[in-house]
Please model this.
Amino acid sequence: MAQVFLKDEDVYHQRQGPQGRSDNVRSNIYTVISRMPIEADMRIRYRIRSKSDNVERIVTEDQLSPIL
Model:
């Protein structure tokens, strides 16, 4: 599996709303810290850090989008 996002790249993170629904209103800019090992579900995960409030998260690749 190819890595889409690179370390130190800025990305948008699409937050999850209630019951896993996308929250289109709140999308923040994060920096990719590292790629995590692939787990049993075979989804690529990244550790990201918020640019605004210094919070780190581990998210799946489908929750991220590039900043154009």
Summary: The mean pLDDT is 85.
